[in-house]
Amino acid sequence: MRIGELAKLTDTPARSLRYYEAQGLIEPRRLPNGYREYDDYLVGRVTQIRGLIDSGIPTRIIKQMLPCLGSPLKIVVDDAEPELLELLAVERDRMTDRIDCLTQNRNAIDSYIDAVREARSARSTADAA
Asked: pTM surpassing 0.85?
């Protein structure tokens, strides 16, 4: 598939896909005319990469993790470096902190939505009376 199709399937800008390639995270085949040709398996790989980046994990760490990511649901470990494990533990803890913050913010938004709905309902009831 071409870069535009991969971009659409993964909701990832083509510019990001070229960046992932420059960072060694994905490797498309090159056609004789120089165009990039992406294999189907890269849909899952790009989705993983994007999720890890969105979680705040730097591409240098993602590059080290890629050999451990056989498919989106399967982790294959052949030879993980101790430094990688330490980096991942730090990133995991940072991610947990962000998740906690996001959960609190989501709950606050839910409370606000509930309060607005109750106020609207009370107004509608008062207007109807």
From this structure: no
